[in-house]
Amino acid sequence: MSAKKILMVVTNHAVIDEEHRTGIWLEEFAVPYQVFKENGFEVTVASPKGGAAPVDPRSLNDEWKDEKALLDDTVKLADIQTDAYDALFFPGGHGTMFDFPNDRSVQDAIRRFDDQQKVIAAVCHGPAALVGATRSDGTPLVAGKTVTSFTDEEERASKLDAYMPFLLESKLRELGAKFVAKEKWSDHVEVDGHLVTGQNPQSSRSIALKVVELLKAE
Taking a C-beta distance cutoff of 8 angstroms, is the pair 167, 161 a contact? Predict the structure, then answer.
């Protein structure tokens, strides 16, 4: 049996303003990547623009230096034949709030995976990718779906709420999602069919293990 293939899509957005740099929250990329590789999966790392992908400096950790190196040269998402992959995974970081919701390649990839009932997973701010995503009939992808993400309470606790283009929990609710929020910084994952979402960095391993479980059950 051939190995399952995971397409991990990361943000290219590096700056909130002159005082705040951002990017990928490294744990949310590195820990799932490790889990996927430990389970024998093949992983491709892509981004909307391709090339080097920024890491939020607040999330740097030498424990994940090998995984960080993988972000130096990502594949441009639009250049990928997504039909070859079994799951789509969006790590978070505040950068995702700026490029994921409005990027056509992100929206197209999500629609193709949804049409084929393939696993779509996103953790923390990664569900920002779902904000601009629609089903083939034009309805919001998250409408009627049970999901979670970085909560409004967690955003306020991070003191970056005023700098965001929107609050992710509130936006997902506006789009018709059945949003489930646990206590801030809780390890929390929601699964609704082939859609898997995690609340925060603390959920990074759990969401990856859930993706592995779903793929191995196919």
Answer: yes
CA distance 135 to 127: 15
Instruction: Residue 179: give the domain boundaries.
Output: 5-217
Cα distance between residue 207 and residue 23, in whole Å: 20
Contacts of 154 (CB under 8 A, 6+ apart): 184, 185, 199, 200
Coil, helix or strand for 34? helix
Which pTM does this prediction carry? 0.98
The CATH number that applies at residue 186 is 3.40.50.880
**CA gap 144, 39 in Å, rounded:** 32
> Comparing C-alpha atoms, which of 151, 147, 203 is closest to residue 175?
147
What per-residue confidence (pLDDT) applies to 218? 84
Q: Coil, strand or helix: which one is 196?
A: strand
Structural domains of the chain, count: 1
